[in-house]
Amino acid sequence: VMKDHPPQNGLRVLEGNKMTPPTKIFIIDSDRLSLVTLSLWLDQVRDFEIVGTSLPTGNLERRTADAQADLVILNISSPSIDALSVLRRLKQMKQDMPVILLYDGEKHDLDGPLTLESDAQLSPEVSLKELVDVIKKFGHRQKVMSVPMFMVKAG
């Protein structure tokens, strides 16, 4: 049985010398209150690290790239966000980075490019546990895809 120890230098240490870095999350929202609230909620989850938050502004790509996030949460509940434009800017920057959409309203409102180009779509009424489960799923997938592979010749 592996025991989990408190994080050290951004890494979770497991007995047996296995280390699992936390999932790095970047949150985008045009509503400052919901941005802070979501950030505080997710910051309580041991395996997550909030590496940045932003309003959907012009320097979004630079801020997201500098944060080196594993995934982005984009809250499109606010009508002032041009969600498709923001989503496409993120995907142009790093095509394989998962983007999770939080939305208000009906699921059918997301039909089309928003559904096709994002990785997951969740209503804001979703429980924190469900959101955490989706983040873990996509965060783990991103880490597996980006881990460098070293080939050692048997000899």
Would you write up a description of this structure?
The strands form two sheets. This protein has a five-stranded parallel β-sheet with strand order 5-4-6-7-8, sandwiched between helices. A three-stranded antiparallel β-sheet has the order 1-2-3, with no helix packed on it. The protein has 155 residues and is α/β, with parallel strands linked by helices. 21% of the residues are buried. The N terminus is likely disordered.
What does the secondary structure layout of this molecule look like, with pairings?
Blueprint: E1 4-8, E2 11-14, E3 18-20, E4 23-28, H1 32-43, E5 48-54, H2 60-67, E6 71-75, H3 83-93, E7 99-102, H4 113-117, E8 120-122, H5 128-146
Parallel strand pairs: 4-5, 4-6, 6-7, 7-8
Antiparallel strand pairs: 1-2, 2-3
Helix pairs in contact: 2-3
The biggest beta sheet reads:
5 strands, parallel
Work out the helix count. Answer: 5
Please state the overall shape, judged from the principal axes of the Cα atoms: globular
Topology, number of strands: 8
- List the secondary-structure elements in sequence, H or E: EEEEHEHEHEHEH
**Approximately how much beta-strand content do the residues carry?**
15-25%
Short account of what is shown:
With 155 residues, the protein is α/β, with parallel strands linked by helices. Helices cover 35% and strands 24% of the residues.
Keywords:
155 residues, alpha/beta, 5-stranded parallel beta sheet, 3-stranded antiparallel beta sheet, 5 helices, 8 strands, 35% helix, 24% strand, globular, disordered N terminus
